[in-house]
Specification:
The chain has about 300 residues and is mainly α. It has a domain at about 35-210 and about 290-305. The chain has helices at about 1-10, 15-25, 30-35, 40-50, 60-75, 85-90, 100-130, 135-160, 165-175, 180-200, 200-225, 235-250, 260-270, 275-305. Helix 5 (about 60-75) packs across helix 14 (about 275-305).
């Protein structure tokens, strides 16, 4: 509700009539934005998840559907962008062992975050060399990158030290047996260790596919801004998108970073010398695109939860 209030305030304070007119002027071009390049992003991110499995075994189209459904839940529920990961694993029940699906979800969350960190680093380098030298916004992004790097290192350390099984045993001692089987968590610990020790190629491919998906975000940003009448370079679009990903990571507790992300776009656009109305228009167009793909994800969830799982 606070996110909605913030978004409403941002629109109200930045010429709402002009913002709505610019979105209406998109006309048929809005259809292009809804389909491209976001469809490619979904495909590359699914490839990134596929290589987070130690072995191929689940059909690619099943992974696509499960990922669409999971991301819809990540976007719409206050679960710190983790509720959708549980949905992905649940939708693959009967199609792969539970420890394998849980391991793949954890590894994919790790590799997509690593790829996002690399993309943010690229955006910072581009901004430092060409656009925002000495900007407070740039230094803020450097701090976010540093914090994210430390948090990610701790996350990987937890995975490689068998902390899931230890957590399950602790929960059992405390009487929280409904959390799940600590034996299953132990299997996940073993699978995570085995993946990081024996599958460096799959790990690298997972990171690479997710990184390509992040790069496609630059193309989407450039395309939306061109359609909105703002002639920006691909480098500027990369800075806008990279900084936007950092804001989403920092505000992961807010569903879809609603309102906060638009505020971040506004600060970035102003720092780049772009109109504030363009920032709000850009943010709203992205929200329309997200809403469409959330709906697609919920349809995929409804279809997959009714489909009989293979033995």
């Amino acid at each position: 509700m606070l996110g909605v209030a913030l978004l409403t305030a941002l629109v109200a304070q930045n010429e709402p009539a002009a913002v709505l007119a610019s979105i209406a002027d998109l006309s048929w071009r809005l259809v292009i934005i809804l389909c491209f390049p976001v469809a490619l992003v979904q495909l590359f991110d699914t490839f990134g998840w596929r290589y987070a499995f130690l072995h191929d075994g689940v059909r690619f189209r099943t992974l696509v559907g499960a990922r669409l459904a999971g991301e819809a839940f990540n976007m719409t529920t206050p679960t710190a962008a983790l509720g959708g990961e549980a949905v992905k694993a649940w939708l693959l029940r009967g199609r792969a062992p539970l420890d394998a699906t849980l391991t793949s979800v954890i590894v994919a969350k790790t590799t997509i975050t690593i790829a996002q960190g690399l993309y943010l680093l690229m955006g910072i380098v581009v901004a430092w060399r060409t656009i925002l030298i000495g900007s407070l916004l740039l230094y803020g992004m450097l701090w976010l990158l540093a914090v994210e790097t430390v948090a990610l290192a701790l996350f990987v350390l937890v995975q490689t030290r068998g902390m899931l099984g230890w957590t399950g045993r602790l929960a059992a001692r405390l009487g929280l047996r409904a959390i799940g089987s600590h034996a299953t968590l132990g299997l996940v610990d073993d699978a995570l260790g085995r993946f990081y020790r024996t599958a460096p190629r799959r790990l690298a491919l997972s990171i690479a596919f997710h990184f390509i998906a992040w790069l496609l975000g630059s193309l989407e940003t450039w395309l939306i801004l061109r359609f909105l009448g703002s002639d920006v370079s691909l480098a500027t679009a990369t800075v806008i998108e990279a900084f936007g990903t950092a804001i989403k990571v920092a505000t992961f507790l807010i569903p879809a970073s609603l309102g906060v992300l638009e505020g971040g776009f506004l600060a970035t656009f102003v720092a780049l010398g772009l109109p504030s109305t363009t920032a709000i228009s850009f943010g709203l167009v992205r929200r329309i695109r997200e809403a469409v793909w959330v709906a697609i994800g919920l349809v995929a969830f409804a279809m997959m939860r009714r489909a009989p799982a293979a033995r």
